[in-house]
Amino acid sequence: MEERTDRRRSDTRERIRSVAMELFAERGYEKTSLREIAERLDITKAALYYHFRTKEDIVSSLSEDLRRGIDDIVEWAETAPPGAERANEIVLRYGTLLHSAGRDMIRFWAENQPAFRDLGFGTSLRYQFRVLADLMVAPNPSPLAVFHARQALLAISWSLSMMGDLDIDDEDSYRAAVHLATDIAARCG
To answer: Does domain 59-185 have CATH number 1.10.760?
Structure first.
C-alpha cells in the first residue's frame, strides 16, 4: 500500500513538473502562476503546495536532477582511463541524460534566460559542464582541445534548446546530436 502511495506521489510530482515546464514555455516563467499550474492539472492549489511551495522549487527540482546526473557521469569518468573512449562515453552519457532527465531544464534555460539567471542555477551547471569537458581531454590539454570538448557537449545541449522548430522526433534529434558530438570530440585528443 505504501509503495503505491509513493508511486502516485511521484507521478503527481512529475506531472506538476511537466505541466509547469509547458506553461513556462508558453507564457514565460514570470507570467505563470502556481494557480495556473494547478488549474491545468485540475488539482487544488493545496495539492500543488504539498509537492512544491513555489515555482522556484519546481525549477530547483529539475536543476537538481540534472546536476545529480552530471555528478554521476563525472564520478564514472574520474575512474576511467583518459582517452578517446572516455570522451566518447562522456558524450553518450551526457546525451542520454539531457535527452531524458535534463530535457526540461535545458528548454527552461533556453526559453527563460532572465529567470534562469535570477534563480542562480546557471553557475553550478556551468561549473559541472566545464568539469565534464575537462574530463574529455588528455592531461595538460591545449586550449583548442578543451574548446572542442565543450563544443561537443554544446552540440547535445543545443539539440534540445534550438531545434524545437524542426520536424525531427526526439530519437532522431538525440542520434544526430550524439553523432555530431562524437565527431567533434574526436578532436579533443
So the answer is: no
First to last CA, the chain: 53
Question: pLDDT tens, 117-171?
Answer: 777 777 777 888 899 999 999 888 999 999 999 999 999 888 777 777 788 888 8
Which of 4 and 30 is assigned the larger pLDDT?
A: 30
* Sequence-separated (6 or more) residues with CB below 8 Å from residue 94: 70, 73, 132, 153, 156, 181
Please give the class, per CATH, of domain 1-53: mainly alpha
The DSSP-derived string for 50-75 is: HH-SSHHHHHHHHHHHHHHHHHHHHH
Distance (Å, whole) CA 23 – CA 104? 12
Three cell numbers at 89? 562515453
Q: How much is the pLDDT for 3?
A: 56
Q: With CA atoms as reference, report the closest residue to 184 among 138, 139, 136, 118.
A: 136
What's the confidence (pLDDT) of residue 10? 64
The pTM for the full model equals: 0.82
List the alpha helices (DSSP H) in 28-142: 34-41, 45-51, 55-79, 84-98, 103-111, 113-119, 122-135
